[in-house]
Amino acid sequence: xxxxxxxxxxxxxxxxxxxxxxxxxxxxxxxxxxxxxxxxxxxxxxxxxxxxxxxxxxxxxxxxxxxxxxxxxxxxxxxxxxxxxxxxxxxxxxxxxxxxxxxxxxxxxxxxxxxxxxxxxxxxxxxxxxxxxxxx
Amino acid sequence: xxxxxxxxxxxxxxxxxxxxxxxxxxxxxxxxxxxxxxxxxxxxxxxxxxxxxxxxxxxxxxxxxxxxxxxxxxxxxxxxxxxxxxxxxxxxxxxxxxxxxxxxxxxxxxxxxxxxxxxxxxxxxxxxxxxxxx
Lengths: 136, 134
What we know:
By secondary structure, chain A is mainly alpha-helical.
């Protein structure tokens, strides 16, 4: 992976490359083989294990990001990221609360909570771009 | 808690936050009652559903204002850590639940519960951060 001059960023990239990406590949392969081709029945121990591994992938991503934030020495970079995360979580909460009320009365389809993380990442990235632009 | 702090930024934060929380409760309950009794449709349903989301935006602004007004770097850092801990725990919980919804038989997670869950985790996280830095 391209190395930057920022050691915290490099460590995050390395963790992503050597832990998160192999975990994603292994877990997706297991999930497609197990559930896609019906080798594993839902509600069995194996199914629960795969669900746990799938969730571990997301948790790994979150922990990796948290470690980066803790290791980052650049105050400005940390401030921008913290602000972006707050905006990201705020926007995600607004969307999910709106959707939750609509869903409660069958006005919209159920939104799987799995979409929560991608939605948060999307809003956080947009916020990060806007905050950086403000400080330019 | 409000009375015990000498920090003006924290005092303002508590008052603003309490107002936003009260507004959230005050808008959520009538919205649900309106949906139950009048069964609104179309644009009216969307307008009603967006009402409880507005104080959430307000709370976000309140947090932003507090972080901007807080003069003590150390306290600001602790508050940010608590919020980030809350975000991380909430994301982890909803991800696990999402996968369980897909592949095992668990009840559906009502999305409007995610917001109170988030604040619950922020509270736990704040306690842990406070204990660590005592």
